[in-house]
Design a protein that fits this description.
SH3 type barrels, alpha+beta
Length: 110
C-alpha cells in the first residue's frame, strides 16, 4: 500500500514538473524579439475599427468608415468574426484581431 502511494506521489510530481517546463517553451523559429501584439498591429496597419453593432439578427462593424459584416471584404482583408471587442480579419499574411479603437463606451440601442 505504501509503495502505491509513493508511486502516485512520484507520478504527480513528474507531471507537475513536466507541465511547468512545457509552459515555458517557445517556438524556436520565432525571432528573439517577437511580440504577437506588435505583429498583429503590423498586419492591420491602416485599419481602424471605430464601432461594433450587435443586433438580434446580426453583428456588424465600422472599419475605416465602411460598414462590414462577417464574410465581407475591406481592402485585401476578409471579415471572419465580430465580437464585442474586436473583429477578426484574414489577409495575405494571416489572421489577426483588430481591436476596437477609441473610448470604451458601450450603449444599448433600443
Amino acid at each position: 500500500m505504501l509503495k502505491r502511494y509513493c508511486l502516485c506521489g512520484l507520478t504527480l510530481s513528474v507531471m507537475m514538473v513536466w507541465q511547468t517546463s512545457y509552459a515555458e517553451l517557445r517556438d524556436p523559429t520565432q525571432p528573439a524579439n517577437y511580440d504577437p501584439a506588435v505583429a498583429a498591429a503590423e498586419l492591420g496597419k491602416g485599419l481602424a475599427l471605430t464601432a461594433i453593432f450587435d443586433t438580434k439578427h446580426q453583428r456588424s462593424a465600422i472599419i475605416n468608415g465602411q460598414v462590414v459584416q462577417i464574410g465581407d471584404r475591406i481592402a485585401e482583408f476578409e471579415v471572419l468574426n465580430i465580437t464585442n471587442e474586436e473583429v477578426r480579419l484574414k489577409g495575405p499574411k494571416g489572421i489577426f484581431a483588430l481591436p476596437l479603437s477609441g473610448a470604451d463606451i458601450k450603449q444599448e440601442i433600443k
